[in-house]
Amino acid sequence: MNANPTRRQFVKTVAGGLATLSFTDNMLADKSSKKPPNLLFVFPDQMRGQALGFMNEDPVITPNLDKFAVQSLVLTEAVSNYPVCSPFRAMLMTGRLPHANKVLSNCNSNSAPFGCELQESDRCWSDCLKDRGYSLGYIGKWHLDAPHKPYVKCENNRPNFAWNEWCPPNRRHGFDFWYSYGTYDYHFTPMYWATDSTRDKPIKIKQWGPEHEADLATKYIRNEGGRYRKPSKPFALVISMNPPHTPYHLVPKKYVDMYEGKTYKDLINRPNVNKEDDTPGGKLARKHIKNYFAMVTGVDDQFGRVLKALKEEGLEKNTIVVFTSDHGNCLGSHEHPTKNVHYEESMRVPFLVRWPGKIEPRRDDLLISTPDIYPTLLDLMGYAEDTPKQVDGVSRASIFLTGKGKRPTSQLYMWVPVGKPAWGRRGIRTHRYTLMISKTEGKSTEYTLHDNAGDPYQLKNIASEKPDVVKELTGELEKRLRKNNDPWLA
Ligand code: CA
Q1: Are 322 and 41 in contact (CB under 8 A)?
Q2: Ligand 1 centroid to 29 CA: how many Å?
Q3: Strand-strand pairing, 235-240 and 38-42
Q4: How much distance in Å is there from the Cα of 39 to the middle of ligand 1?
Q5: Can you state the percent helix, strand and coil of the chain, rounding each to 5?
Q6: Beta carbons of 334 and 271 less than 8 angstroms apart
Q7: In angstroms, what is the span from residue 4 Cα to ligand 1's centroid?
Q8: Could you say which DSSP state residue 398 is in?
Q9: Rounded CA separation 100/480 (Å)
């Protein structure tokens, strides 16, 4: 595979490619600039890496991301190592793997008795930036607090199962501007706790979540009335949108209308989805594919509005912009409804990073892992020495900036059943293969191996045909797990 097409080739492949910012011109102009960069980190929930128009995989409409891609480093093989909400979010914030950061599964009332939540004592990248004088804003879904009784009164907190929790100021890891919630999937009637909201007084909104959040992000970027951040200081702003997460029908009609005339036959192009029979996965895909893509288009539209504000404020050049997601979405592929499995649709996420004049726009197949994001961002921003020793991730800043540097040969995959850290699935993904090993109490260990080069839709398990590959990859997996004292090895 040609991992690094030239920039010209890349521009040519991008639909409606706009002129990019001139890399060398900006490089020269920026030499004297020593202002610390801002960071804008945008990550919708459950947006798979295939759902980017310019990648020519899903037939999805993403004009803003297509344009942004021409100006960005696009990591085509970025994954979520534990592809479900809270574990990804905790790895993102701490740079540590789940057994180290204690977020071994989603934060909810089921996992709460096991202490599953972001630790106040962990040092997040946002804590580091706060100590560097940054203004820090967090808008949208957080999902890193365990719900506690009496549960917050809201639709998805029921007496026997609760999801949503307020994040008190002492657990916000340096974010001084707060407009967030734990988990809450009502996209047309979202709820938030603002910086000074008390637990019993969330704000209820009647507007599509991503649009509302983009409105607020725009105000933050413009610093309207000087109310949002210190004008003399750099800022880091996170926007964590809930769509394209379920429920898929909660999407503005204007985005669905953009797919007018398209049938599920036009939209489902993955051969690992059952388009003929009434299997649960096949039915799910046919019912929701249009709305899922419409939501992605809506997220793209709102992301475009935020980028516009950044440009209008003259902040485009000195702001590192990252666009990614916490995990993907099978939506019927392999008969699987959503995520938390080793398949490409679940693990692969968008990863685009733009820093005009510093990061040359191109594609790269770097096998980046979620914990790498923390040290990479701090390194890019000039604070490599702030990354604590306990961080498991490795800075890939050199590869971002020059294309050169040590490259990982694999990415970890994990799933841990609630309260059973020694069980569940572990795996390893390389440029060529995905190996997944499943350990269930009382059952024999199961092996799944996919050749992602010869079988990109992972239709065949070739574990029994390729014992040598299984052995080699198991060795690599065990080496990684030993380093992190994963009790699964025992
Ligand atoms: Ca999620």
Answers
A1: yes
A2: 40
A3: parallel
A4: 22
A5: 30, 15, 50
A6: no
A7: 30
A8: H
A9: 13
Half-sphere exposure of 71 (CA within 13 A, CB side): 22
Q: Is pTM, for the whole model, over 0.90?
A: yes
168 and 254 both lie in a single domain: yes
Cα(370) to centroid(ligand 1), Å: 14
Helix (H, G, I), strand (E, B) or coil at 482: helix
The answer to whether the bond into 36 is cis (omega within 30° of 0) is: no
The mean pLDDT values, 10 residues at a time, for the chain of 490 residues are 42 40 45 80 98 98 98 98 98 97 98 98 98 98 98 96 98 98 98 98 98 98 96 97 98 98 97 96 98 98 98 98 98 98 98 98 98 98 98 98 97 97 97 98 96 98 98 97 93
**Which of 350, 377, 405 is the C-terminal boundary of a domain?**
405
Say whether both 371 and 458 belong to one domain. Answer: no
User: Which residue has tokens 């009335």?
Assistant: 225
The reply to whether 291 and 425 lie within a common domain is: no
Which runs of consecutive H residues, i.e. helices, occur in 194-279? 209-222, 253-257, 264-267
User: Which residues, including other chains, have CB under 8 Å from residue 461's CB and lie 6 or more apart?
Assistant: 448, 449, 450
Q: Is residue 144 a contact partner of residue 93, using CB atoms and an 8 Å limit?
A: yes
- The answer to whether position 154 is within a domain reads yes
Q: Are 365 and 79 in contact (CB under 8 A)?
A: no
Q: Which residue has the tokens 């504000």?
A: 309
Q: Where are the alpha helices (DSSP H) in 83-208?
A: 85-94, 98-101, 125-131
Going from the Cα of 199 to the center of ligand 1, the distance in angstroms, rounded, reads 23
